[in-house]
Write a structure and sequence with these properties.
Blueprint (H helix, E strand, L loop, with lengths): L5 E6 L2 E2 L5 E2 L6 H9 L3 E6 L5 E6 L2 E7 L13 H11 L3
């Protein structure tokens, strides 16, 4: 997939540190940073599926994971899931 691809990052609510279940973006920061660094335009979209993260390219889900498996904060360079997501976007058709 060429650079400057539109990527929709869909994310559901989750509970953090015993707090209430809400939509939070702290665990998405590294993933967003990795995709933006590659030149992609990332749009966040809330969904109601608990703990779910999905990346959509051309209306097709190319990657999904549990939001709690992503590292909290950071730039995503050390998170293996961010690299897996990055490659899924690059290999999307």
């Amino acid at each position: 997939m060429p650079k400057k691809t539109a990527v929709i990052l869909r994310y559901g609510p989750y509970s953090a540190a015993g707090l209430s279940v809400e939509h939070r973006t702290f665990r998405l920061e590294g993933l967003q940073a990795v995709l933006i660094k590659d030149g992609h335009k990332v749009t966040l979209e809330k969904i109601e599926d608990l703990n779910l993260v999905e990346l959509m390219v051309n209306d097709e889900i190319v990657f999904h994971c549990n939001i709690k498996d992503l590292e909290f904060g950071g730039d995503g360079t050390l998170d293996p899931l961010c690299e897996e997501a990055r490659m899924a976007v690059l290999n999307a058709y």
